[in-house]
Amino acid sequence: MSSPSAKTAALSPQAFATLLLLACMMAGNHVAARIAMDHGVDVITAVAVRSAATALVVALIVVAWRVKVRMTRRQALMMGLIGALVALQSAWLYSSVARLPVGLALLAFNAYPLWAAFWAWVLYRQRPERAVLVAMPVILFGLALALDVAGATSGLGAQGQWARIGAGAAFATAAAATFGLILVLTQHEVAALDGRFRSALSMGIVAVLTFAVAGTQTGLHLPHAPAGWWGLAALTVLYGTGFTVMFTLLPKLGVVGSSPIMNVEPVAALLLAWPILGQAMAPVQWLGALLVVGAVMVLGLRKR
């Protein structure tokens, strides 16, 4: 989890290529999650397994690199809150992926910069920048096209289309709102903590919470077919590797904080889901997707 306050800097070719690979890996994680969930894995199990593996790897890095950790009481409380929010955000995003085409779920989630601006205004009285206000209608219009909210492309009409996508869109919106809050709290409350430690702690909290939820219900829901096991393994490896690269390799390449290049993740997911899951989109939906991704990338590239 990185701070959104980092300034945009010129990227080296190595950093650019790494970021594109990272975006593809995170997109692949969601495609693999859909495969796992289509073969018996539930949302809580997917989040629990993924988070536990990632927390273990990043914690080992923290120990091996002897990262110094000092937390105030307020920072400790905030990290607990952030960890709980990450658990919610992860569960809601996977719930959306289970109900919508993967790329569309990530596109709806990609509206999180608008939510970050909203939470910064509500909690810290920071007025939204003009660029955010200008981008807002572009992002919303792009989402309307991509999700086919009028049902013109699907031929179902607005009511039929919302019956199909309503729950998935609601989960993606909740995930975006939560992630925006996570970014704002990270920037204002715990940015002074080492990013690797923040990541290990937050992933550890997510793992504990999700395993606890699974324990109070019917336990973990493991795959009932080989494809589900491959999906569960792939989402764990892809997410864990991507998360680790984000906080170990990228700083060495001169990349600090969230990069706008990472916002190509929904497009990568759309391209991967097409041949793997058979999730194709109409041209007008692709136009909407490009509007959303383009607007979010412009926001990320603006001077601060």
Report the β-strand fraction as a percent range: under 5%
Q: End-to-end distance, in Å? A: 20 Å
The largest β sheet comes out as: none
Helix fraction, binned, reads: over 70%
The rounded Rg comes to: 19 Å
- Quaternary assembly: single chain
Average pLDDT across residues? 89
Q: How many helical stretches?
A: 11
Provide the structure class: mainly alpha
Shape: globular
The run of helices and strands is HHHHHHHHHHH
Give the low-pLDDT segments: 1-9
The tally of strands reads 0
Task: Write up what this structure looks like.
The chain has 304 residues and is mainly alpha-helical. The chain is 75% helix and 0% strand. It is built from 11 helices and no strands. It has helices at residues 13-37, 43-64, 73-99, 102-109, 112-124, 130-147, 157-190, 195-216, 226-252, 265-277, 283-301. Helix 2 (43-64) packs across helix 3 and helix 6 runs antiparallel to helix 11. The longest helix has 34 residues, at 157-190. The protein is globular, with a radius of gyration of 19 Å. Mean pLDDT is 89; it is low at 1-9.
Topology:
Elements lengths: L12 H25 L5 H22 L8 H27 L2 H8 L2 H13 L5 H18 L9 H34 L4 H22 L9 H27 L12 H13 L5 H19 L3
Helix pairs in contact: 1-9, 1-10, 2-3, 2-8, 2-9, 3-4, 3-7, 3-8, 4-7, 4-10, 5-7, 6-11
